[in-house]
Amino acid sequence: MSDDFVLDTDDLKRRMDGAMANLRTEFASLRTGRASASMLEPVMVDAYGSMTPINQVGTVNVPEPRMVTINVWDKGLVGKVEKAIRESGLGINPQLNGTIIMLPIPELNEERRRELGKVAGQYAESARVSIRNVRRDGMDQIKKAKADGMSEDDQKFWEVEVQELTDTMIKSVDEALETKQAEIMQV
C-alpha cells in the first residue's frame, strides 16, 4: 500500500460542507428583527407521537415584515404548536386566532441583539469543532497509511492538503459569523 495511498479529500470536503450547511440553517433560524419563515425551521412539535417540524403540521406565512402566521391543519395540534414556539427560545409570544397562530416579531433591543450575537458565535464554534473532527479523521487515515508504509513525503503532502482544506472551511465559518453578527446588530 506504500505508493498507492490516495486520501479521499472529496469525502472530507463533503463532510466539512455539511458542517457549513448546518451552520447556515442554524443562522437562518436566528431572528434579525425581520420576520422569516426559516426562523421556525428548528422548532419541533410533538405531533402524533413523534417530533415533527412545524412546517409539516401547518402552513407558515409571512404576511407582513413583522408578522409570521401558522395555519395549523389539525385543530388538536394548535396548543402543541403554541407550546413548542413558547419553549423554543425564539423570544416570541404566539397569539391564537382559531387554527391560526400569529407571531408578532418585536423590535430587538440592544441586549437581545448581543445575546443573539453570542448564540451565533456558539453555532459557529460548533461548526468549527465539526470541521476539526473531520480534519482529525483525515489525519488519522494518513497516520494509518504511514504505518502501512507510506513515504514521509507523501505523508507531508496529504497533511498539507487536509490542513489547507480545514483552513479554508474555518475561514468560511468566520466570514459567515461576521456577516450574521453584522446582520443581527443592524438596527
Automatic annotation (TrEMBL):
PANTHER family: MITOCHONDRIAL RIBOSOME RECYCLING FACTOR PSEUDO 1 (PTHR20982:SF3), RIBOSOME RECYCLING FACTOR (PTHR20982). It comes from the Bacteria. It is found in: Cytoplasm. Residues 23-185 form the Ribosome recycling factor domain. The keyword Protein biosynthesis applies. This is Ribosome-recycling factor. NCBIfam families: frr. GO terms for biological process: cytoplasmic translational termination. Keywords: Cytoplasm, Protein biosynthesis. Responsible for the release of ribosomes from messenger RNA at the termination of protein biosynthesis. May increase the efficiency of translation by recycling ribosomes from one round of translation to another.
